Amino acid sequence: MSETKPLRIAWLGGAPLNTGGAPGVVTELLDGLARRGHQIDCFFPGAGRNLPEQLAAHENLTFIWGTSDWRWNKWYSRSKITAFASGLLSRAVASIRMRQEIVRRHQQQPYDLIYQNQTIESLGVPAKLLRSVPLAIRPDSHMAGELRWQLRERRLAFRCQPPYIFFVVAAIMSFRALVQAVKIRRASLLIAISTVFRDHIVHDYRFPLEKTVVITNPVRLERFANPPREVKSPPVVLVPIRVSVRKGLEDVVEVAKLLLARGVEARIRVVGGPSIWSDYTKLLGDLPAANSEYGGSIPPPEMPGELERADIVLLASKYDPCPMSVLEALASGVPVVATDEVGSIEGVDRSVAAEVRTGDVEAMASAIAAMLERLQENPSQLRALARSEAERRFATDVVCAQISDALEALVASNRRAA
Q1: Please, which residues have CB within 8 angstroms of residue 210's CB and are 6 or more apart in sequence?
Q2: Which long-range contacts (CB under 8 A, 24 or more apart) does 64-73 make?
Q3: Quick one: 359 exposed, middle or buried, by C-beta within 10 A (0-12, 13-18, 19+)?
Q4: Which of 295, 297, 307 is nearest to 223 (CA)?
Q5: 8 vs 110: CA distance, rounded Å
Q6: Which of 55, 190, 327, 391 is buried most, with the most CB atoms less than 10 Å from its CB?
Q7: How many angstroms separate the CA atoms of 94 and 68, rounded?
Q8: How far apart are CA 357 and CA 341, in angstroms?
Q9: Alpha-carbon gap, residue 326 to 239, rounded angstroms
Q10: SS in 3 state form for the chain?
């Protein structure tokens, strides 16, 4: 429970789920902030769904569902590209319809702030409320960054998908990037999920640095176990990743080939599926069968077991603000090798989270070999450190205490200014 006065918050964003990924983060954030006493009205554009039990138990959480009835396998969602475009449109229309309800509830009992989760350009924020109510945003990514790598990897995209998909997606991203550059200026506070992500937003959208704070994602530690176990033979280097643009999959293929050429005993295992608008599965056909495999998409409930069978996690991303794969790996006692664009390794002990330069395949292979050597010398000690780092950095209570403090400071500053 917060020691200061609990806040009344209007929360906008995607709905929670009792799983990993972005919906799981929503669950942890709402649970953690509710346990600190804040009263939160949650506005979700989609139609109602079953809530995670841990959220349904909070009397200070209220859920207001929208009118979006978007479904798969309809005329507007039979292909990935139409599903991508129609899904964006459906959420936008539903968000606009929620504005009136937000204003009505504010008139009945005023909000202290509006908290916009996951996106920058939500259309559900009533503009007239922003004259008196501060807006805090906590995005998962930004379109300028997505667009940058969409364009840089056009040759990979053309190799993997029909060209028209690339052009349609690039056009949508370009429009969203322009909208975001304007909409972000309404924010009184930007909560960035990593420093590298914050720096990209400040540079790309010219957002004031002094209006930012860096607070990482939380992870539900109870989902992941760290039982005593020896290093596998051969050791498993797990690559849990979306098989799409900006994830460095071409580098993963080259790392596998280099480890094989160097005679490093390790097996690369890539797991994950494509996104709705980007599919790089064809690249994985170049993985050397002698020391690597593609395991396909793994359902979220099976990821804890997948991590428990891994020895190291590799993330070769070119742009990745705060991937949950790092949090979940460390919570499972699995050390990580990642590029300097993987925001979630920030602040983690480098003995369990090795950092390499983006695109440096030689350094990735060397870091894997060095991590395996340390792991084989004392597996229990290294795994215990990985788990303790997850508890120190990413526990829900730790993260939500930081967010709560930032929101309380924002509201106090707004009241002084008024």
Answers
A1: none
A2: 64/98, 64/101, 66/94, 66/95, 66/97, 66/98, 67/94, 67/97, 68/93, 68/94, 70/46
A3: middle
A4: 307
A5: 8
A6: 327
A7: 5
A8: 8
A9: 10
A10: CCCCCCCEEEEECCCCCCCCHHHHHHHHHHHHHHHCCCEEEEEEEECCCCCCHHHHCCCCEEEEEEEECCCCCCCCCCCHHHHHHHHHHHHHHHHHHHHHHHHHHHHHCCCCEEEEEECCCCCCCCHHHHHCCCEEEEECCCHHHHHHHHHHCHHHHHHHCCHHHHHHHHHHHHHHHHHHHHHHHHCCEEEECCHHHHHHHHHHHCCCHHHEEECCCCECHHHCCCCCCCCCCCCEEEEECCCCCCCCHHHHHHHHHHHHHHCCCCEEEEECCCCCCCCCHHHHHHCCCCCEEECCCCCHHHHHHHHHCCCEEEECCCCECCCHHHHHHHHCCCCEEEECCEHHHCCCCCCCEEEECCCCHHHHHHHHHHHHHHHHHCHHHHHHHHHHHHHHHHEHHHHHHHHHHHHHHHHHHHHHHC
Amino acid at 318: K
What single-letter amino acid sits at 143?
M
Q: Give dist(CA 6, CA 264) in Å, integer.
A: 55
User: Taking a C-beta distance cutoff of 8 angstroms, is the pair 124, 43 a contact?
Assistant: yes
Residues in the chain: 418
In the chain, the domains with their CATH numbers are: 8-218+395-417 (3.40.50.2000), 222-394 (3.40.50.2000)
Letter for the amino acid at 194?
A: S
Pairing of strands 312-315, 336-339: parallel
In angstroms, the CA 364 to CA 357 distance is 8
Q: What is the pTM of this model?
A: 0.92
Both structure tokens of 156: 């990979």
- Given the structure tokens 């395996």, which residue do they identify? 372
Do 155 and 138 touch, CB atoms closer than 8 A?
A: no
Q: Is the pLDDT of residue 323 over 70?
A: yes
pLDDT tens profile 361-413? 999 999 999 999 999 999 999 999 999 999 999 999 999 999 999 999 999 99
- Report residue 219 as tokens: 């992870």
pLDDT tens track for 209-259: 999 999 999 999 999 999 999 999 999 999 999 999 999 999 999 999 999
User: Cα–Cα distance between 74 and 92 in angstroms, integer?
Assistant: 18
Per-residue b/e over 168-186, b at no fewer than 16 CB within 10 Å? bbbebbeebbeebbebbeb
